[in-house]
Amino acid sequence: MNSCCHRRPCRRSRRSRRKSHVPSVGSCLSVWTHLRSNAVCQTIPQPPQPSQPQASPVSQTQEDATCQFTVGPLPPCTTSVPLQNPATVDLFPAVDLPKGASEWEEADSFFQVHLVPRVCMEETVDAMNHVLCTGIYDFFAKRSNNKIPPDGHRHQHPSKARQHHQHPAKERRHQRMLKAVKEEKKQTKKQLRALRRDGNNSEAVRTLASTFHHLVKRYSKLVQEEKRAQRRRSRQSERRACHRDFWKYAKSVLDDDSHTGIAPSFSRETAEDFFKSTYSATPKSFDQPDWMPDAPPPTVPFPEGEIMPEEVQRVIRRCKASSTPSPVDQVHYRVLKNCPSLMPALLRLFNTCWTTSSVPSQWKVGVLHLLGKVSAKSDPSVPSNFRPIALTSCMGKVYTSVLKGRWMSFMTANGYLNTTVQKAFVDGISGCTEHHVKLLSIIEEARRKHKV
Question: Which of 106, 113, 215, 359: disulfide with 185, CB 3.0–4.6 Å?
Fold first, then answer.
């Protein structure tokens, strides 16, 4: 199950902080549910049935000519728009997305004809977001097969799984030899013990002892050769995996495996009290000291115009397609990447947010996955033994990334940001590489001078 609460600025989310939208505490705590908890849980509703045909600016003939989706246009939703700071939020199950280019083209054509005009007709940001998210989810829910296994992992093909256990003939002969020498050494040791217990033939004991020691040396040599062969096979396998997909291999090496699959056992009230007291913060104002000089007036004005398609496209291209969407709307980055016809609807929504200084209420909700730490094995009733990972709206993160890009360009163009000190999350500045090399040089110099 999923849980809702304030977004935690944990270590795993630092890299994606610029793409994240921090939800409000009031909205998040009101929809809190335990992850995989049997005591307190929120039932995930079934995928909503697509709406019945109603009046639409597009005729049925145009619909049939565009795609084979037999359900009519989306109904008006002015009466079902979510209220500000809702008391409860429906969490929708995931749906299967298209696999081929033809299926994506069909979805893109449907959105262009039936969904985008409806979004552009709305006036408020909540209505626009509701029509857009509901239309996307209804389309894919109708065609979803839900073929993903319950554990969330796609099983590997048997032929691909077997190929990692196949060894060349030379390695198989070496393993058979190792097994034979081990068995011979075991039998020789038993015979040697029997002769020593009798104590009659000392010459036979010396001969058998020499044979046993020779077998021990031979077995040790074969064991070392087998270990070297295993290390060689491991290096070859890792090299192939790195060449096949570098980023997947790097993630498997650097991924944090400190969490467990332990489910929390504490109550909803305990969770609300803990997360509210731990991650709530009161806004603070900054009083400029007398010794701090005023910043010079900007030479480059802040871009206050409408959000342009190039800004949104630049952000969407940089989004990670494998990111998990928020269960509040289930709108995936892959939908935004493969359906360019949604751009007018996104621009309409983003520019309305920009001009009215407001965002949809769904963007303020964060759905948490609680990952048990190692300490959760001993006591799953303590909330601090779980690491919350927040899932927020992908469209909300695209919007905040656009605003971040405008602020960053304004700060760097006017010299307000010292890139010799602030290097992280600055476009065009390879700060991590520079700091890493400098740290390595400092450690190496200290090692040469015996300072460490």
Answer: 215
Q: Please say if the pLDDT value at position 46 is more than 50.
A: no
Give the tens place of pLDDT for each residue, 307-322. Answer: 999 999 999 999 998 8
Q: What is the 3-state secondary structure (H, E, C) of the chain?
A: CCEECCCCCCHHHCCCHHHCCCCCHHHHHHCCCCCCCCCCCCCCCCCCCCCCCCCCCCCHHHHHHHCCCCCCCCCCCCCCCCCCCCCCCCCCCCCCCCCCHHHHHHHHHHHHHHHHHHHHHCCCHHHHHHHHHHHHHHHHHHHCCCCCCCCCCCCCCHHHHHHHHCCCHHHHHHHHHHHHHHHHHHHHHHHHHHHHHHCCCHHHHHHHHHHHHHHHHHHHHHHHHHHHHHHHHHHHHHHHHHHHCHHHHHHHHHCCCCCECCCCCCCHHHHHHHHHHHHCCCCCCCCCCCCCCCCCCCCCCCCCCCCCHHHHHHHHHHCCCCCCCCCCCCCCHHHHHHCHHHHHHHHHHHHHHHHHCCCCHHHHCCEEEEEECHHHHCCCCCHHHEEEEEECCHHHHHHHHHHHHHHHHHHHHCCCCCCCCCCCCCCCCCHHHHHHHHHHHHHHHHHHCCCC
Statement: residue 22 has pLDDT above 70: no
CA–CA gap between residue 358 and residue 384 (Å, rounded)? 33
Weakest mean pLDDT among 331-335, 389-393, 427-431: 427-431
Q: Which amino acid is at 231?
A: R
Please indicate whether residue 162 or residue 190 has the higher confidence score (pLDDT): 190
The length of the chain in residues reads 452
Which residues are within 8 A (CB) of 375 and not within 5 positions of it... i.e. 6 or more apart? Answer: 382, 385
Checking if the pLDDT of 242 tops 50, the result is yes
Between CA 151 and CA 156, with CA 152 as vertex, the angle to 5 degrees is: 95
Query: What is the average pLDDT across 274-283?
Result: 82
386-391/367-372 β-pairing: antiparallel
Examine the pLDDT at 204 and tell me if it is beyond 70. yes
Cβ–Cβ < 8 Å for 18, 404: yes
Q: How sure is the predictor about 259, in pLDDT bands with cuts at 50, 70 and 90? A: low
Most distant CA pair in the chain: distance in Å? 108
- 112-134 pLDDT per residue, tens: 999 999 999 999 999 999 999 99
Whole-number Å distance between alpha carbons of 383 and 369: 13
- Are residues 372 and 386 in contact, defined by beta-carbon separation less than 8 angstroms? yes
Instruction: Please tell me whether the overall predicted TM-score, pTM, comes out greater than 0.70 for this model.
Output: no
